[in-house]
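Appendix B. Extra example for self-study. Work through it before the problem class; the solution is given directly after the inputs so you can check yourself.
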Amino acid sequence: MKKSTLKNNIRKLRFNSDEMTQQELANRLGVSRQTINAIEAGKYSPTLELAFRLAEVFNEKLEDVFQYE
Amino acid sequence: MKLNKEKYIKYELGLTLLFFAYYIFLTIESFSSTQNAISIYFNVAVGYTISIILLVLLLLITTKTNDIENDERDSLIESKAYRNGFFSIVGIINLLIILALFNDKFFEPFILFNILFSTLFVAHIIQSITQIFYYNKGI
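Solution. Structure tokens for the complete assembly:
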């Protein structure tokens, strides 16, 4: 499988948001905890809509959450 | 109550393999008539359906999950799994058409019936394996 080139700062952003758990983040976004885990581990690239909603949860710009390398 | 999808797929694959093996065993045991094939078909199909219903109920009762039923990643994995299942059915049917051109034996209802019934099992197994693969390796 081609290695993902989409990096993210979700772990760091969760830590900065009072140690938000994956489950809490998943509940806020309406996805499963496994999906958050997969995104964080770089095993799944979310849809554009979910990526924007993720950035919105952390009050960050999309490019501060995801970086294409 | 919500179903843990990954867990369900693994158990479902186990059940499918078990019933496929049972079906092959019964078919080999009574490899003779179309009448036997129909009774085997009903035994396996009804048994499999009841087992799947029981599995879903059991998992709903025993699994505690706060996850949502189906999100975008689940849908994507599911669509890839359905695609692979569909391709396997198309592949086997194409193979069957080619073989039927060269061998009259494939036109016999008993043989054709068993091959088509097995095709459904194989497609379902490929579908489940695809899902397990993508859940583990990522998509």
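Self-check: The radius of gyration of chain B is 18 Å. If your reasoning did not lead you there, revisit section 3.
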